[in-house]
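quick one before i forget lol
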Amino acid sequence: MADITRSAKAIWSGDLKGGKGKISATSSVLKDTPYSFATRFEQAHGTNPEELIAAAHAACYSMAFSATLGRQGFQPELIETTATCHLTPQPAGGFKITKMRLQTRGKVPGLDAGAFKKIAQEVECPVSILLGAGLQIELDAALL
């Protein structure tokens, strides 16, 4: 099987604080979606890189968890994952993504809470693997 490729494009105009950007993806789900200093470091309307990374991680983990459950003979009704990306100011200046926290909840008939947590730890999500190379990933897993 050939590699699956996905791409997105970001355009930035202007300086850091006064500039603005837009993000588009080939799927058109993101189409000229605005981002700026204010959307990243304040609470302005638009998106930011950390939110997009968190969305990718939550989606990937939920799908991988479902697949892992299926391989172990369980049919999930629902997997709901919230990913929280931590962007931390650094003492020497600048910022660093220091941690990703995953909170996953699920409805899985025939599975008890202990087994759910154990299987959640076994999930091999491609985004977790990518981020785990230099990032602390915390996991909180529980049945609904």
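fyi The chain is about 30% helix and 35% strand.
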